[in-house]
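Appendix B. Worked example

We walk through a single record from start to finish. Start with the input: the chain for Acyl-CoA thioesterase II, Marinobacter nauticus, length 136.
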Amino acid sequence: TLFRSIPKVTPEFTRHIEMRWAFGYMPFSGKGGREMGGWMKFREAPETMTDAHIVALVDAWPPALLPHLKGPAPASSLSWALEIVHPRPAMKPDDWLLYRATIDQAGAGYGHTHAGIWTPAGELVALSRQTVTVFG
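Next comes the structure step. The output line below is what the pipeline stores for this chain.
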């Protein structure tokens, strides 16, 4: 399923990223679940894939808690750590990268998640850890 940026809901930069939902439920579906993710790449591939490009790709994904909500609500990262593997595995700027996020714990407006990002060959690119607040 293609995930489209939504004006005034998703960050502006996400329009530059193509995302294919592969598992879990869409944000604001009210269906919950502990995992979500799919494939991502830039709509226009950069000349080379830098660490900054990887940060943008990972940051484009909505928090894994949002499929639990039945409608849009404000949410914010309370903390976010992203570890990019070095040396980075070989990848082309137009490769689809896999993003898979898991909710470790959620309740009372807070959620703790972790995610991994992999190349099409299954090599780890980065690890993400995030604490999210949801106001709704």
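Two observations about the output. The longest strand covers residues 97-107. Helices lie at 51-59.
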